[in-house]
Design goal:
By secondary structure, the protein is mainly alpha-helical. The protein is built from twelve helices and no strands. α2 packs across α11. The longest helix is centred in the first third of the chain and has 34 residues. The model has no long low-confidence stretch (mean pLDDT about 80).
Length: about 270
């Protein structure tokens, strides 16, 4: 039965993170399989893009290395697609667990084609905006470089916060592209707490990625691959945090519990 909204309640960052850790641990075998799939898909995409834009020099040679910029943008979006393929079933597995019902693995897989593009765009906007900013800063525009840096940093933070729960909305509520508007409304009045959650999970991921880069630099390839896999696991943990944040916001602002969401959107 649907409860009563409590708009004065706090989001509870510590509560969300501890519950996410417990939920992540309880579904670790499924998460490990989906993470392995994401790693393989990304490696395949990287191989294809390197072959196309570097080995064949697709756009030719010039002072402005268009091959490099197109490759970076391409790898960013194919990375988002690969993550979306694995995020969609993961979101449904996590939501089934939270709602206390049996896992529907076949249903989770069948939802990939329907939700792939919106989830990929949401992932790319939240996680790859800094890469776009960095690419623009490499272009020789010295007079506006600081303005561009500030603008894209602000846009990245804004996108990360207001669209933080867009992916669960696409998959669980079947909102499609409308999920971005609903995420904006759902997060309103809780942007600073959501920003706090985002900062914590991003810092964890960044630490693992930096350690992986150092391992590559010093030739520790095996350790680097282990850390790379750990980075993908961190992304899966971020998805877990996102799903629990979505459930918490629905409970606070709409009085909807996980079982209510399951009944309404199935």
């Amino acid at each position: 039965m649907q409860g009563v909204p409590d708009r004065s309640a706090s989001l509870g960052i510590g509560r969300i993170l501890s519950a996410s850790a417990a939920l992540f641990k309880s579904r670790l075998p499924y998460i490990a399989v989906l993470t392995s799939a994401a790693v393989l898909l990304n490696k395949l995409a990287d191989t294809v893009l390197v072959s196309l834009f570097y080995d064949t020099n697709f756009f030719g040679s010039s002072g402005f290395d268009l091959n490099y910029y197109v490759y970076e943008l391409g790898i960013g979006f194919t990375n988002a697609l690969a993550h979306a393929v694995t995020m969609i079933p993961l979101i449904l597995i996590l939501q089934d667990t939270i709602a206390g019902r049996a896992l529907r693995l076949r249903h989770s897989v069948t939802q990939i084609p329907v939700n792939l593009l919106p989830v990929a765009v949401a992932f790319w906007l939240v996680n790859h905006s800094p890469s776009v900013a960095a690419l623009l800063l490499l272009i020789d525009l010295p007079h506006i470089r600081a303005i561009v840096s500030l603008l894209f940093s602000g846009l990245f933070i804004f996108a990360a916060v207001v669209w933080f729960v867009a992916s669960p909305l696409v998959v669980i509520e079947r909102q499609g592209w409308r999920a971005f508007g609903r995420s904006y409304r759902l997060v309103s009045r809780y942007r600073w707490p959501v920003f706090g959650v985002f900062v914590v999970v991003t810092l964890i991921l960044m630490l693992v990625l930096v350690a992986s880069e150092f391992s590559v630099t010093y030739g520790q390839w095996v350790f680097a691959e282990i850390l790379n896999f750990a980075a993908y696991l961190c992304t899966a943990f971020e998805v877990t945090v996102t799903v629990l944040t979505y459930n918490r916001l629905c409970a606070i602002k709409e009085g909807a519990q996980p079982e209510d969401l399951a009944a309404v959107f199935e």
